[in-house]
Amino acid sequence: MEIGQRGETRRALSFIGEIGMADIDQVRHWRLRATELRTIAEQFSVPSAQDTLRRLAARCDQLADEAEHKRRARARRGAIERSPG
Length: 85
Known about the structure:
Blueprint: H1 3-13, H2 26-43, H3 47-82
Helix pairs in contact: 2-3
């Protein structure tokens, strides 16, 4: 790994915590992160850095999918608990 590449990767990843999860819902948070990582990856000239950022974006998409699944499960549980019967 080249020294410049390491610094670029560190800078690119530093934004992940910039927006608090309390400010927006988790699904939107992780989708936004994935989009940002892909955009940043396009700006890199080092293929291994691009690959790393794209893998991180894919993981953010997985986290968004998991958050969506949990949100839907909670909504279903809430609907069941509120239903008369």
